[in-house]
Amino acid sequence: MAGHPLAHGVRAALACIAMALGTAAAAADATQYLPVDPAAILRLNDLPRSRARLVATPYPRLADAPWASAVMTRMARVLPPTADVVSASSGIRRLVAGVTLPENAATPRLAVAAETIGDCASVARWCGAFYPCETPLDRATRAWIGGSGQITQFDQLFVFTTAIPGPVVAPLAAAPRAGARWPDGCCELELHPRSLARLMTRFGTAATLQPPAVSASLRLDPIGVRERLVIPFPARDAASFGGVAWPAARRELLATLPVDTLCAFTCRMEPTLAKRAFAPFAASVPGCEGLDTALAAVSLPPIGDLLATCEGDLLVYAVDGPLLPAITCAVGMQQADAHRLLTALAPSLGLRDDGDCTWHGLISLVDMHAGWVGGELVLTSDPAGIAAHRGRSAGFAEHAATRAALAELPPGALGVGVSRSAASWRAIGRLGAMALARAELPEAMSLPEDLEAAGRHGFVAYRLDHGEMVIDSGGLLGGPGTWYATVAGTVMWWAVSAMEDARRQLEAMPKREATAMTAGDLVF
Question: What is the pTM assigned to this prediction?
């Protein structure tokens, strides 16, 4: 398999992904082709060094797996047949992208600048594959124009911008731009609240939304990806937390978990702080208002008040099982609050009251148990019920992968989580293999073993540092930001792939038959 052309394509495509996880240096900045207040900026820096770092990661081995080749073959169907992504990406040193919605503009504006190295002919061919209409601007400048925008070449710099009046021959804004925040090497993402709110409002999000400013850094590592998210507290909210002692997580709880635990997370819940902290958070996150409405429909208080009923340790962990992992959540709570919560949720969750402060039922064929025991509200899918949590024996911290993950946690973290990733990814691989098999990818049968061999250890920790919330994480898929991007990208790929399949089916049908078909008749 290692010598198969598709395997080389998979490795090269992963190298393209790895460029998003590279190291930082001064680079041509696409924001100079945007108005002064971009909504989001993405910087991929020192891509050759990223490709070199890729060798020490688990990804090249995964790229040689049969299912990876099958997935890449499907992805190739949605790219222009003449677009040589591999050759083009190998000629790029740095790439910077930005998006914004200018004042009084109807559509967002996107700009991407790629700084090339050596002979840039392959990059030029790639541009022509997407935009066949080439227009020479002068002896030193070339441009490719299409319905969605224009690519302009300035010597070793290629700039793409969405449609704007006239050709792109100079930056649109001369204001100086801030460089990389993490110069030691990373892919960086910045989200800027004011312009981002304007952009989201354009797409129908409530005008009152106040998205947080976010900076993210990703870097390739032998464990996979290391990620850092930094979210500053707005000044108006930070002032309300003055004098509040944020409780540190009791990481020693992780050592009390069973030997077959896959992953676990713990933090401390403090009622007064929960209510004060959740208010500004809820104002920034879409859907919180709808969540409060749903809670009210089952006679429960708003989410902020509900969180304030939790006091003490929150412990969430997953234990390996023959098919599905058993997930347990335990949190300190008064008996009256626990009873009120379970009584309200029981009808929708299919739980029955056993009459001894415990409940049980089936949720989508998963055996669920809940109850209040020893000052804790416990919910678990463990077949042995709440007794499995109360009578658990230690052993999780004895795994070498668990010890390595625990060593990653910074002191004073407010919330911490660890994973022995080989076992965790094997469990995830079992579920993924079933899903991919239904998508007619029989090569996915090796997915559990391949992911198990690639997994090292994983961790996540969040802490406060000079008015900013800092989330450090790492593992085969990094942390929260990487997970979100991966899920979103996967959904987008499946959607585009499905549309491409539909187009091919329609093109293959006789005209009369295609006219009689409906969307429901197409096989995706």
Answer: 0.78
Supply 67's token pair.
Answer: 């299912």
Query: In sequence order, what E strands does 334-467 have?
Result: 351-353, 358-363, 366-373, 376-380, 415-419, 458-465
- Distance, CA of 353 to CA of 371 (rounded, Å): 9
pLDDT values of the chain reduced to their tens digit, one per residue, 524 residues: 444 444 444 444 444 433 333 333 334 566 777 667 788 888 888 888 888 888 999 998 888 887 777 767 766 665 555 555 556 667 888 888 888 887 777 778 888 888 888 888 888 888 888 788 887 776 667 888 887 788 888 888 888 888 655 555 566 555 556 667 776 667 888 888 778 877 777 766 555 556 678 889 999 999 999 999 998 866 556 555 555 677 899 999 999 999 999 999 999 998 887 777 676 666 655 556 677 788 888 788 888 888 889 999 999 999 998 878 999 999 999 999 998 888 888 887 788 888 777 888 887 778 889 999 889 999 999 999 999 999 999 999 999 999 999 999 999 999 999 999 999 988 888 877 776 666 666 777 788 888 888 989 999 999 888 778 899 999 998 888 887 777 766 666 666 666 666 666 666 766 555 455 444 444 43
| b/e code 135-170 from CB counts within 10 Å (16+ = b) | eeeeeeebbbbeeebbbbbbeeebbbbeeeeeebee
Rounded Cα distance between 470 and 481, Å, is 12
Residues 6+ apart with CB under 8 A from 499: none
Q: Cβ–Cβ contacts within 10 Å for residue 350, how many?
A: 14
> Among positive and negative, which fits the CA dihedral 132, 133, 139, 141?
negative
The number of beta carbons lying within 10 Å of the beta carbon of residue 437 is 15
Packing angle of the helix pair 421-438, 447-454 (nearest 10 deg): 150
Length of the chain: 524
Integer Cα distance of 439 and 494 in angstroms: 10
The partner residues of 415 in beta bridges, in order of sequence, read: 267, 462
Question: For 447-452, which contacts have Cβ atoms below 8 Å and span 24 or more sequence positions?
Answer: 447/65, 447/67, 450/61, 450/62, 450/65, 450/67, 451/62, 451/425, 451/426, 451/476, 452/422, 452/423, 452/425, 452/426
Q: How far apart are CA 307 and CA 375, in angstroms?
A: 16
d(CA 131, CA 128): 5
Q: How far is CA 345 from the centre of its chain?
A: 30
Which residues on adjacent β-strands are paired with residue 232? 468
Radius of gyration of the chain (CA): 26
